[in-house]
Design a protein that fits this description.
This protein has 454 residues and is an alpha/beta fold. It has 18 helices and 10 strands. The longest helix has 23 residues. The N terminus is likely disordered.
Amino acid sequence: MSKASKTAGLILLAGLLLVASACGAKKNDAQPSPSAEPSESSTPAASNSESQAPGEKIKMRVITITTDENRNNIMEKYIKPNIAKALPNLEVEFEPGGGGEDMANKLKTLNASGDMPDVFWDDAGYFTPLKSTGSILDLTPYIAKDGFLDKYAVPDALKHFDGKIYSISSGADTYFTPVIFYHKDMFEKAGVQVPTTFDELIGISKTLKDKGMVPAVTPGKDGWGPKLYMLQQMIQIGDPQAMADLVANKTDFNNPSVKAGAARIEQLAKEGVFPDGIANLDYGPAMEMFTSKKAAMLWMFTWELPNLAKDDTVDFFPFPSAGDAYDPAKFVQFWGSPLNGYAVSAKTEHPEEAVKLAEFLAMADALYFESTGAPIALKTGNPPAESSPLMKKFIDWYNPIPTKIPSLALNSLDARTSAELSSQGANLLTGEYSADKFAEAMNKVWSENTWFDN
């Protein structure tokens, strides 16, 4: 399959998933009401191992991502209270894995030592070495046989480029995209309006700063923001085709539009749009700055929308345009990859039970996101919760957008390239590092990026 067709396929599948998931949600009105405890119809039952002695529990080890409050809520409210009832023949040990590079390094070490967990959170960034060493199980025959695959609105959206399924999740991440949240009352107090162009964004940021407010905040530590969305947004708002080409490896970091995107990050830092020390600001402190109204804007993915919607002063707007080629009603970045989700070690001694455990974890994710009013692709058997006005506004904007560009960070970077983008992105946030130096450093590692070799 060509690189261009790979990207086209991702965009097409995302569009199908959004439409089918949204339509499917409307047909569940006669189902039971949502509950924090999975229903029998929505929770996969445990299977018995032929070698399992009567009354003896099978020990399973799971490494999960533990990167934000959503993950903590899923673990404490949906997984731990329900797992014993759903899977009575298993004794499960959970191990926090962090996320991003921390998770990649942990799994790399465990894989090398032959100590892989039975179930783990998979990510495109470290999928290739796991696949090349035969360490990740093809889930397709298992979830097709037990019917779990049928619970997905668009099953084909789970398939990797090779046609196999390696990970399962709630499908909620297809609806995650970066936006700019803002406090309406802080904008009103400063006398500024929602910007529609990049220049206007810089302009209102200066006004907010003159009024004694921090204009905008986002996690910057380890290059979190630049790697996961900011570089993509800053390229995309000027030239969405260049961004799609970069995801597909049809261009590189010397592309003038790519360099212009990096230069916009450099400009944002120099203009004081972000707080001092942004390059060292972690996720939690960044969120606290916004929720406590120490910052007027928050640049963040919509996975935080359900929590932020509880404050009626919070609204959002798409990233404003930096050129005629971009229209926020026609182009958007979507967070998601068929590789993101719960995966099973190919070397587990109990593959069927491990798959059942992965199914339970994916369903726990789905039940949680469903309870927040977020759209999901994995059908739980429950009707969706009533969405907040902010969520409805988001869905009304997001669903009709015809071109959804996959995230560079999830679909185009091997572990080494991902780590380099983290470092170089953090450098850009200092405001003392040029876009030219960024492009030079990234091009060197980009030319050796192994993601497109698999």
